[in-house]
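User: My collaborator sent over this chain with a note saying "see what the structure looks like." That's all I know about it. Can you take a look?
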Amino acid sequence: MAHGGAGAGGAEVTRQARAVRLGPRSLLALVLVSAVGVVAFTWPFLAPPHSTVNAHAQDAPWLFAGLLALLVAVVAATISESGLGAKAVAMLGVLAATGAALRPIGAGTAGIEPMFFLMVLSGRVLGPGFGFVLGSVTMFASALLTGGVGPWMPFQMLAMGWFTMGAGLLPGRDRLRGRGELALLACYGFLAAFAYGTAMNMQGWPFLGAGTTTIAFDPAASVAENLASFAAYCLATSVGWDLGRAVVTVVLTVTLGPAVLRALRRATRRAAFETAVTFEDRRPVNRPT
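Assistant: Without extra context I'll predict from the sequence alone. Here is the result:
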């Protein structure tokens, strides 16, 4: 077993096994769907005024929602095919069910959404490939559980996949432990909670329609004018919720993080994801007499 360098307490740290190792095909699929996702979220700032896209401003969110649903499913299937074994599927099911059950707590009131801290810690321990699938599946399951199915759901699945995958890409996965790791995860969770809220604002903002309010998306306005309107929209509608989500994520990461990280790492070691499952043949052997 390979070993990393000394951790925060000076002890050697065993290299953490990944539940899913991204191969070239799954990595390419992930990059492509992320690129399409960026366009799907930011198209109001990419399409010039009076363009064909802006002429169908009310239809574009629905079209992108359908496209993202298909692409996220393709990426999840590709990653699963590349190495999501039976033990990883079991871990995925447990964590996704736990995250989906945590989401209704607070119902998003004032940003009380404890599932985000679990996604951060799970992505950190289990890696970016598993993290993307976990974030997407958890958001899908929680939408079914809470009745939150709509054109926003594929955007939520992709944004949560990015959110959880990002935690798996943080540095020092095999070496950093203790307070340093908690500080890193808390900072990431704080910033990523705002990024998630901003991304989902981009998804919902075009639905307002020009003329309904002064902070609505206007297809005929310039990029600068729409950026100013979007900033005002975020300040007026979501800063309080995003701040609450960020603070709750930090508090839970600092207080519950050590115990949850130990539990996840212990489960990962016992699962031995990188060891193939074998079955022993226990059929009786007929020996010659």
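A starting point for your reply to your collaborator: The CA atoms of residues 98 and 285 lie 45 Å apart.
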